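Task: encode each sequence below as structure tokens.

Item 1
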Amino acid sequence: MLNGSNWIKPLVLALGLFSSTAIAHVHLAQTVPPRESEVSMAPDKLSLTFSAEVRLIKLVLINSQGTAIDFGFKPVVKAAKTVSFPVPALPADEYDVEWTVMGNDGHKMEDSYSFTILSGHSHHADH
């Protein structure tokens, strides 16, 4: 039985383990196009940069009608901080990007963000 100050050491150890686990979780640091932005022309790629290396296991681009845009996503086998995928010509619309990653610690994280294209197809005009 722990009495007096004997309980402090186990408590500090437990809190230290919990906080180091919480800090180890990865977050989405940057996106192209930027999160929650309005862009003047359609992007030619989706790019996600994380705070540490991850394996991207799901990436879905959805328009305002709820239709998923097929851009040939395949899960990323090798861990990386930045992943980029070319996208087809996109019309002006609001888009949601849903992603799921697995960190090196095996922890699965998922989230989403959105962006709006004010005028579509522009990036393909000179191709």
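Item 2
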Amino acid sequence: MHYKKKKLFIEKVNSLKIVRKFGTPTYCYSLNKLKKNILDFQKNFKSLSPLVCFSVKSNCNLKILKEIKKCGVGADVVSKGEMIQALKAGILPKKIVFSGVGKKTEELKFAIKKKILLINAESESEVFEIERLAKLKKNPVNIGLRLNPNIDANTLKKISTGKHEDKFGLTEKTFLNILNKFKNSKFINIKCLSVHIGSQITDFKPYLKMINVLDKIIKKSKHTFDYVDLGGGIGIQYERKTKSFNYKRYNSAIKNFLGKHNVKIIFEPGRSIIANCAVLFSQIIYIKNTNKKRFVILDAAMNDLMRPALYGAYHRIIPLLKTNKKNDQMHDFVGPVCETTDKFLSVAGFQNLKEKEFVAISDVGAYGMSLSSNYNLRPKPLEIMVDNKSLKVILKRQKLLNII
């Protein structure tokens, strides 16, 4: 994404041409940025030879998953639907990990039938249910146990997953009890120690604490694991002031860990792969001035991009056509949905905007379209992929007739 003669380009395509042809709201992805992000992630951990499983919940578009599969990446799924989508994209079952705190029997049956690599269990009841289903099939099932390490990832409260007050994973006591109970089971193979401490983590230090906890519990358990699933959660620079993640320090800590434990590492990146590959194009419907601020009312809404309303998440907004004229008022970029929380950004000072002009909401590839809804009976947006100079629709705009 760059400006050329004051016009915003996605790769080599003028974004103004995209919005004039396809309308708004529209999600637009850069294929080359996606490929570069995957390659960079693989390079950062090349010496570890990990299994990289893309977090499908971050973006479940079939065409995107097919491109990810071409790069040799597997899938981390949290529902039967995501598993079906990953398989449809051509991702091999032996590269699929099934996570989540509340897997239904029907979903577990499907995972067992497809012989995926691992089901990461998060409660003792779930382990009993997997064993029961495995007995019926008369085939052992490989599982992981997800530990809750009680680590504060210093991220947004609503996307923290590794503290004791969070619903995810097992306490150390329960973890060790399950290992003891099922160590001689003919139908359960506990192959993996799994952990995930949160999302949008930009400081490597919580990961160092996490690795230390894993080291101690493996020694305490005296169990031989084939895999250690370190989850995902590595953040991106939504704001320019955010420090970039120190991959070198994290990689070094994992190497030290592997010097003590002979296991294969699994990663489950989502945001770090797909977030900064996409923008959400939107048109300004109205501009409303009050005594205190300027409301820029967009045709995109919280149903199209939920993160700011749900988490208070930050996304930069940029114009598709740059000018040198600035307006110093406080700007509130808001959507048309009948909720006060339908707001994307408050910023002091912005270039002078006019009604019917276009803007781009940045870094929306992760948890953008996948969290979208039909709230206020609004159709879901179009999705487009840019590859150099070419454009391809990867999901058609939903029509009202599809939902009414």
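Check on item 2: The first strand starts at residue 2 and ends at 4. The first helix runs from residue 15 to 22.
End of task.
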